[in-house]
Amino acid sequence: MTYDKELVAGKLRRWESYLDSFRLPDWEEIPDFGLYMEQVTALLKEYLDYFPPELKEEQFITAATINNYVRIKVMPEPVKRRYYREHIAYLIIILALKHSLSIALIQKIIPMGLTKDEVCRIYTDFAAEHSKSIRYFKEQTRILAGPILGHVERGGATVDTPEALIVTNAVMSGFTRLLTEKLLLLEGKSLADGGTIERQTKP
Fold first, then answer.
1. Does residue 51 contact residue 92 with C-beta atoms inside 8 Å?
2. By the number of CB atoms within 10 A of the CB, which of 7, 29, 106, 182 ranks highest?
3. Alpha-carbon torsion 40, 46, 49, 53, what sign?
4. Least confident range of 20-29, 111-120, 193-202
């Protein structure tokens, strides 16, 4: 791998600046008058605009994907081909998480069969945690990439090349996903039937 350090530093600063003002829409800001599929896909691209353009077009949401989510009962069916606030809230959460979790595990976060009030509560909590996670991610990236950005901040490990930044983030991403999966699988279990907290050969 070979990367231009100044280019990477500039991209990091630009992304940090963008994330400073990014947030998911509040529950009340999501349209609830019934949107058709084309309007939904356009709205979701607007709401989740932090995906890089190179990835957004290739991996983002399509009508076929939404239809499949409905078919496999990951989200509620549209009402006379129209999608309302609850549908869009489901899709925002699914899309925000699908790069890091399987659909089966996302369903543990926002399952089917919820009332509108329950969807509102889950979405509102998710949006708040999403914002906190962005802030934490920015802070940690600023520390980790300090030498690349031309500054040194106290409080953590640092890397001094774009290549090392890529590898470190990839490794952390894997461990973060693993921890999330392990925690999700503890739902409804107790110490008696969910394993021991004592140190073992395998976690």
1. no
2. 106
3. positive
4. 193-202
pTM: 0.87
Nearest to 142 by CA among 129, 157, 130, 131: 157
Nearest in space to 88 (alpha carbons), one of 56, 133, 132, 48: 48
Q: Are 78 and 91 in contact (CB under 8 A)?
A: no
Q: What does the domain layout of the chain look like in residue ranges?
A: 5-184
Q: What is the DSSP string of 128-191?
A: HHHHHHHHHHHHHHHHHTHHHHT---SSS---SSHHHHHHHHHHHHHHHHHHHHHHHTTTT--T
- d(C-alpha 22, C-alpha 9), whole Å: 20
pLDDT (tens digit per residue) in 161-181: 999 999 999 999 999 999 999
* Tokens read off for 126: 């998710």
